[in-house]
Amino acid sequence: MVIAFDSDDLGAALKWERSRGGALFPHLYGTLPTGLAIGITEAPLGPDGAPDVGELAP
Asked: Which of 7, 25, 27, 55 has the smallest number of Cβ neighbours within 10 A?
């Protein structure tokens, strides 16, 4: 499952940082306020068996 949050709702606790490959990746420094979830969708498995969550955007 993928649980969606509005990044603006997470405030300063959410930081977009570069991964080893150079892409931006979200890191949450603090408690995830689950009551702020805005959507839940299924994350189907990709051909490699890992969940396919699609693109994340900063």
From this structure: 55
